[in-house]
Amino acid sequence: METPDRTEPTETFAQALAALRDEYGGISDSEISRRIGLHVSTVNNWANGKAIPRRDAIRRLAEKFPRFPEARLFAATGKKAPPPLQAGEREALLEVFDRLTEEQRQLLYIQASAVAESNDQ
User: Fold this and answer.
1) Which CATH number fits domain 13-77: 1.10.155.10, 1.10.260.40, 1.10.3720.10, 3.30.1490.20?
2) Torsions phi, psi for 48 (to 5 deg)
3) Where exactly are the structural domains of the chain?
4) Per-residue model confidence as pLDDT tens for the chain (121 residues)
5) CB within 8 A of 37, min separation 6: which ones?
6) Exposed site from 4, 59, 67, 75, fewest CB < 10 Å?
7) 97, 105 in Cβ contact below 8 A?
């Protein structure tokens, strides 16, 4: 069953990573790991289908390898890419946040953090 934050991937992340390697001339896992600042064993685990990357790693991959956009990489993990905030959204959120008590801010922060972390699982 599809949930709003999950999709059925058309390729696995290991397949997407293999395609990335091919597209970038057979780049090695160690070179990928160097460019995105992670240990080579982490990239090896992705390549072998033992793990999928967290949101920040997907974003770094898309930044360092622009022929592989975030949307494709997120889709390969079965997750939807969080879109960037639209113009004015950050300010609107801060305006609401400014009207809350300290306790309400803490509670809202905890709740929002939990929801955001669910995107990483």
Assistant:
1) 1.10.260.40
2) -95, 5
3) 13-77, 89-118
4) 344 555 566 899 999 999 999 999 999 999 999 999 999 999 999 999 999 999 889 999 999 999 999 999 999 998 877 778 888 999 999 999 999 999 999 999 999 989 887 766 5
5) 60
6) 4
7) yes
